[in-house]
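re: ur question from earlier - yeah i can do the single chain one, its not a big deal. heres the input i used so u can compare w yours
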Amino acid sequence: MIPFQSSIAHEADAKDARSPVISVVMTTYNGARHLREQLASIIEQLGEGDELIISDDRSTDKTLQILNEHASERIRIVITSGKLGPIRNFEHAIGHARGQVIVLSDQDDRWLPGRLQRVRDHFAAHDTPYNLLVMNSIIADGELNPTHDSLFAYLKAGKGLAKNVYRNTYVGCHMAFRRELLTVAMPFPRAIPMHDMWLGLVSEMVGAVTFDPTPTLMFRRSGHNYTQTHYPLRQRLVWRLGLITSLLQLRLSRRFRTRPHRPVAESQA
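and the output i got, formated as tokens:
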């Protein structure tokens, strides 16, 4: 794992904050089945200076072969030192990102045209350092046949600390945020159930959260997804307790109290 360091000089900082450089961050594990389709839908939307970071968690299928076919200066493949699981794998991937805005991605969905431009437009219009964008999707089966026309409607998604601790509606591959959030949210606590829930709740504590109702993603749900959907009640209770404890510890921490509050354009001047 590469710890996040806010003092690193990023090549993206030279660009105007109104046109942010974007890092798309993806994790993979035995995702060869749908990976080419997902990569194509992302790569065609990358702009000048954007990058795609992919961290593979020791896949045993043809995932790495596919990734290596696409590797370039702006499509960077990083391999974990050992099997990490989804939370630590995303932490590993995010640690390699250099862009001003980070967009999370799964390995088996398909981006709809204009998704990344929508991200770019949102962050050009919102220059606060802690600003989370949550985008909607169309839920689909393994063959991308639509099953629900809105993830937001299906989950009753929206803001609220208590609401999302009780029943999380922050889904990682729908989220984008400025890298300043990482100075508060990383490293990910060991007790949290998932990184997306943590990033969403921390964003509510420190800044603004926007739920964009326009679907920009075909969200594939099948038996081949990396993470499970259902867990025993006892496990869910343990995770919720760990999440609440981690949020309270963050609220009392020095990095929370001393976080910068300046607009992005001002802080990069």
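The longest strand covers residues 208-220. not sure if urs matches, ping me
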